[in-house]
Amino acid sequence: MKVASANAARMLASAKALGVAIRPHVKTHKTVELALLQTGGVRKGITVSTLAEAAFFADRGWDDIQCVLVVIDLHTVPYGYRTDCINISSIDRTIEFLLSRI
Q: pLDDT digit string (tens) for 60-80?
C-alpha cells in the first residue's frame, strides 16, 4: 500500500501543478480504498468500464462517474445494457455513459 499511496500522491501533485483535473480509472483494482487514494480522498470523478462497477461505486457514495462501455455495433446494444443504464442513472448521482465501438 506504501507504493500505491506514493504513486497516487505523485499523480495528484502533478495534476495540481499542471492545473488539470484527473479522472482515475478504477477498472483494475475495483476497490474503494485505492479509488480514495487516487482521488485524494474525494468520492468524485472516476472512470469505470462496466455497469456493475458504476453501480458499485455509486452505491458507495461516488459521484461524477464516467462509464465507458465498448460495444461491437452501436445498433445492437443489448436491451439489458439500456435498461441497466436507465436503472443506474436513477441513482442520485452524476453518471455519464460513453459508448465506444470497436
A: 999 888 888 777 666 666 666
For residue 37, which of 70, 69, 1 has the smallest C-alpha distance? 1
As a whole number of angstroms, the distance between CA 15 and CA 10 comes to 9
Cβ-based neighbour number of residue 49 at 10 Å? 17
62's grid cell? 461516488
- Helix residue spans in the chain (DSSP H): 2-18, 32-38, 51-59, 79-89
What is this structure's pTM?
0.78
Q: Is 71 exposed, middle or buried (0-12, 13-18, 19+ CB in 10 A)?
A: middle
Say yes or no to pLDDT of 83 above 80.
no
How many angstroms separate the CA atoms of 24 and 12, rounded?
10
